[in-house]
């Protein structure tokens, strides 16, 4: 009886992990979500400023790309922090 329950729980955990990776855009070059950067994003990490906060990763990337295009910054990071995507730009 424990076999089917354990198998179902393992499958469910795998599905949750796959969804989490898909929703966060894992592997995207513009997204750097390290624990230290996320923890520091509320007040700005050393050398970085929070230039905006967005509901979705795509909104953050779009704003970051627009800043690259108009020369506002040379690089940016989109960091997931407290259910929001913070646009981090060099200070």
Distance between the termini: 58 Å
Count of DSSP-assigned helices:
3
In the predicted model, the low-confidence regions spanning at least 5 consecutive residues are 1-22, 26-39
Percent of residues in β-strands: 15-25%
Radius of gyration: 17 Å
The biggest beta sheet reads: 3 strands, antiparallel
Secondary structural class? alpha+beta
Strand order of the largest sheet: 1-3-2
Percent in helix = 40-55%
What is the overall pLDDT average? 71
The total beta strand count reads 3
H/E topology pattern: HHEHEE
Shape: flat
Signal peptide: 1-28
Keywords: Signal
In short:
The chain is built from 3 helices and 3 strands, in the order ααβαββ.
Fill in the keyword field for this structure.
about 90 residues; alpha+beta; three-stranded antiparallel beta sheet; flat; disordered N terminus
Descriptive report:
The protein is an alpha+beta fold. Strands 1-3-2 form a three-stranded antiparallel sheet. A hairpin with a 2-residue loop joins β2 and β3. The longest helix has 23 residues. The protein is flat, with a radius of gyration of 17 Å. 16% of the residues are buried. The N terminus is likely disordered.
């Amino acid at each position: 009886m424990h076999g089917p329950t354990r198998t179902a729980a393992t499958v469910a955990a795998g599905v949750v992990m796959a969804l989490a990776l898909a929703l966060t855009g894992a592997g995207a070059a513009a997204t750097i979500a390290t624990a230290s950067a996320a923890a520091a994003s509320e007040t700005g990490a050393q050398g970085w400023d929070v230039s905006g906060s967005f509901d979705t990763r795509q909104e953050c990337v779009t704003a970051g790309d627009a800043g690259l295009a108009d020369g506002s910054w040379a690089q940016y990071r989109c960091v997931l922090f407290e259910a929001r995507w913070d646009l981090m730009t060099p200070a």
